[in-house]
Amino acid sequence: MYVGLDVHKDFCQAAFLDEEGKIIKDERFENTNSGLLELAQAVKGSEVVMESSSSSMHVYDSLIETCKIKVAHPSKVKAIAFARIKTDKIDARILAQLLRADLIPESFVPCMTHRQARLVVRHRASLVGVRTQIKNKIHSVLTREGIKIPSFAGDAFGKKGILFLKNVQLGEAQRASLDSLLALLEVLSRQVKEADKRVEECASKDAYAKLLSTHPGVGNLTALAVSSEI
């Protein structure tokens, strides 16, 4: 049996085809533990296909032990098959028919270890991005007030720079705004340090990352990013 899954955030629309390409049934399964368990039983021993998406990986993990599953490349699937009328049911049926015809352009699915490493690297990158936004807001507050970081303070966000920012004379509203931003910056900096520890731990367990980090100038973060993403 061939099964096409149109995966959404809250549910999976499934189309079941027989060997001749006849639609056996269309069925919807909730993306809950019980719903995915029911789906896993329904597709047991079948060939299954779904498009790669942010919602697909937990469904993939729920089905991998019970069926032969492929993850299709979304844009390449659209290049092969295009429906003038799009519904969840039609999309699932198209996927099932392409699977039966062996026309699925597959996406690479990394192992669980590398997926976890990607999450660690990407989470750290998002924290650094938010921290940079906060630093830019602090600079904006200073610029509006015509204040420059004195040369003796060095880096605006080093120890001396932070001490200067905490004590610089400002109006009441500006002082409250700057204090709030500095508090956020402190929290984010702690979170980045915690993320660095997780990166180091993951890198120490990854054979490729360990090899890459022996190259001069390549640290744990770069090594883990290359290993997990490429």
Can you put this structure into words, describing what you see?
The protein has helices at 33-42, 56-63, 74-80, 88-100, 112-144, 159-167, 172-205, 207-212, 220-229; strands spanning 2-7, 11-17, 23-30, 47-51, 68-72. It starts with a strand and ends with a helix. It is an alpha/beta fold and 230 residues long. Strand 1 and strand 2 form a beta hairpin. It has a five-stranded mixed sheet with strand order 3-2-1-4-5. The mean pLDDT is 91.
Shape: elongated
Gyration radius from CA atoms, angstroms:
25 Å
CA-CA gap between termini? 34 Å
| Biggest β-sheet strands, sense, barrel | 5 strands, mixed
Low-confidence stretches: none
Instruction: Give the fraction of residues assigned to helices.
Output: 55-70%
What is the helix/strand order? Answer: EEEHEHEHHHHHHH
Please state the oligomeric state of the protein chains shown: single chain
**Which structural class best describes the helix and strand composition?**
alpha/beta
Number of strands: 5
Short summary:
With 230 residues, the chain is an alpha/beta fold. It has nine helices and five strands.
